[in-house]
Amino acid sequence: MTATDAGRRLLIIERAYRGSVETQFADVLYLARELNRQQGGLDILLRGLAVTFAAADPVRARPVRIGRRDLDTLPDPREALRTLLAEGAVVWAEESDLARFETGPHWALPGVRRAGPDGPADWSAYRGVHFL
Questions:
Q1: pTM
Q2: DSSP E strands: which ranges in 5-131?
Q3: pLDDT tens for residues 82-100?
């Protein structure tokens, strides 16, 4: 599906913010999932450190210790991307940023596409372009 097929939106995510205790239920990929559901499809372009969201086999982050309690309910961006892909979102990762982080040919999640220097497509073909 191209951007013009259904008036898709392009979401650009550059910061790899995992979430916090206060926002553990609604991180940027949760918002993307809702927009995908409500708007009838979208494309996501991961840039900068956010390309690490596309890692297929990451080392699991350790829980955050607060006092004597372990907090292990923070969002998992890789699982969120798997869900978005399963729900029909198109996920792109900036090729130049991937080159800084990837460690092999199967580093990225299956279904994540590589975006060249100009991004996934002509941005003017999208219904809207949003930086999150």
A1: 0.81
A2: 9-13, 42-46, 64-66, 69-71, 90-94, 113-115, 128-131
A3: 999 999 999 999 999 988 9
